Amino acid sequence: MAIFSLTMKPHSRRKLDSVIRLIACTAAEKLYDQRLEKFFSYDDDSKIIAKGLIFPVDIASSDESFDTFSREKLWNLAECCDSGKVSRIVREIIVNVPFELNADQQRQLVVAFASSLANYYDIAIDFVLRSPPIGADPRSFRAHLFLTTRCIKINKNGELEFSRKSYFEWSNKNLTALNLPTTHDQLKQIRARWAALINVFLARYKIHAYVDSRSHQARQLSVRPFVNLSAIDRQLENCGIPTLLGNYNRQVENENARIMEQRAISERTFSQTLSEESALMETVFATINEAQYRIKKYNKFTQRSNKTDQFIEKYYQQTAATDRSIERYLQKIDRRKRAIS
């Protein structure tokens, strides 16, 4: 069964000393931070499946070529546009990519999702698709999408530059004033868009799986959802050391198993009752068919009896007519005898 997971993390300078450092660590590259004037190097790219930059369609299809535009240049430019100490430079989206797809299909899915967001918000997106780390769930393929908080465009000199903040960074008050969806509604739309794309790709490659972005409560499911384990909790659990979140998931698993068992019992009881009712209905229908057959047979017998009665009555009528003819003939003979004498 495909796994659906989408989380969003806004990163600002209040909690993150350098966006370049975050990007370099995730993309496993050596990048130079112009603001801090230092290099950040992370060269362990063994878990990287694919990575790249995605621009809006008007930039990607322009006459200017930005194929050589590097992520180092992109994020240094983003750092320069917001110099405040609490400025939000990047917004990160982390999604689980279906393990049922192969590497190329996973890359196509992530690129399609990133392109849809880039075109909708007019932003640049830096994506990194990673395979599961050692000791993690082997189905946990993840994609990190780093969204610029400002819209990107081509200036008069044919160069890329950032302009206003994207709609996702606006306050709900300003969004409501322009009749635009709030940030919460936008997040729900993004989740629904990711789920829809997953289902499209699963159907395209004939994989019998399905995901839903809605919560268990919205879907009216009786089972409870699991919580995600942190990296530390997962390491402790792998070493056989129980954790609070691990115990919670085990409790949820037991409760869900009990609910599913009760549901299975209810379904079996319902199926048995339905079978008994079906057998009873078959008996009733058989009795009705037998009664209808007997009624039909009786009607045929009655029709034959009526025809026999009609034939007998007609015979009696013919016999009576013959008797009257004989009587008239005898009377005629008697008159002739008297006339002769």
Could you tell me the radius of gyration in angstroms? 43 Å
The biggest beta sheet, please?
A: 5 strands, antiparallel
Which structural category do the helix and sheet elements fall into? Answer: alpha+beta
Overall mean confidence score, pLDDT: 85
Distance between the amino and carboxyl termini: 125 Å
What is the global morphology? elongated
| Annotation field: number of helices | 8
- What fraction, in percent, of the residue positions are helical? 40-55%
Strand arrangement, major sheet: 1-5-7-6-4
> What amount of the residues lies in strands?
15-25%
In the predicted model, the low-confidence regions spanning at least 5 consecutive residues are none
Which H/E pattern describes the elements? Answer: EHEEEHHEHEEEEHHHH
Task: List how many beta strands DSSP finds.
Answer: 9
InterPro entries: MobA_MobL (IPR005053)
Domain MobA/MobL protein: 18-236
Keywords: Conjugation
Protein name: MobA/MobL family protein
